[in-house]
Amino acid sequence: MAYSLYYLSTLRWHPQNISGPWVFLLLCIHGGHGLTSFPDNLVVGKREGSVTLNCPTELKGEVKWKYERGQDAYTLDENDYDMEGHSLTLSDLGGPMLGEYSCWGQDGKLSSSYVRLDAEEEEADTTESHLSCRARSYNCSFTCTWNNSEVTALRLGLGPDCLEGKPSCPWVSPDNGESKGLEGGYTFTLLHPFSASSEESTALLVTAEAIDDRSYFRETKQFYLRDIVQPDSPQEVKFRVEKQKLKVTVEPAPTWTTPRSFYPLEHEIEYRKKDDGKVGRSTTGLIPREVSELRVRSRDPFVLSTWSQWSPWKNVTH
Predict the structure, then answer these.
(1) Which sign, positive or negative, has the C-alpha torsion 126, 130, 131, 132?
(2) Residue 189 near residue 141 (C-beta atoms within 8 A)
(3) In sequence order, what are the beta bridge partners of 240?
(4) Is 253 in contact with 311 (CB distance < 8 Å)?
(5) pTM value?
(6) Residues 16, 234 contacting (CB under 8 angstroms)
(7) Cα 28–32–37 angle (5° rounding)?
(8) CB 132 within 8 Å of CB 144
């Protein structure tokens, strides 16, 4: 479930609302910086649009605006830019206009603002989701993965405060920090307030914000915990001969919610016959005796959750 960044911008990007901890940004093709964390003042604009940057100071005297790139800072000429009081307005955004802008007084730098372009605007023709979430059980946490490894800074938040950009949002950083996961993405662990023993009545709302040298990305997802449950692969598989068949016993992964009597799992067995190599499946726990190998997977039968990954193939000898 995605919310329009443009809609949110109409609530927060008017010049008198730019003060405060909410993050804004504008981007440029040539002038961006590889930020590895979210700055205090991030300003997001649309290509060929305009944004106003404010210098948050009580200083009554004049201030100077500079465009910073690496170790260099270039003073902006008021004849070429729209400056009024302690505000700087950038029009017709794009190209080398993106990057870090700082305001300066007699005692030095007073603040910085970072400008990026709205990725939703830049990628209007794409609907690809970068964010996916999974719960290994009904315990107090779940994980989310962001699969776009090109971003330089990324954070996730849970709840309406994060959607609305409030200072009270408990933003979470990637588990793997600045390094990328095995598949080139980032993983997060989020804590939720629900008890595993109570009925789930409130949906979870996850907000992701990311930036790269050019763009600002935002994506939201809303779901119930039961919708994203996928158990881990079964931990142990045993079998014994019973009435000319094999009785298969499966031990859930240790990450699954306890007590197991209250949180049962359904198991599916896949097996390969010895004589002809044909593959069959069973959810009853009983399979033909003459099989060469088997493997199993599990799911929550009450919500018909996503099946776990298959366990490794196990040779059958008896």
Answers:
(1) positive
(2) yes
(3) 247
(4) no
(5) 0.74
(6) no
(7) 125
(8) yes
For 175-218, write each residue's pLDDT tens digit.
Answer: 866 545 445 678 999 998 877 666 677 899 999 999 888 789 99
Which residue, among 240, 234, 233, has the nearest Cα to 287 in the 3D structure? 240
Which amino acid does the sequence have at 47?
R
Omega of the bond prior to 259 within 30 degrees of 0, cis?
yes
- Distance between CA atoms of 80 and 76, rounded to whole angstroms? 8
Amino acid at 295: R
Backbone angles phi, psi at 97, to 5 degrees: -75, -15
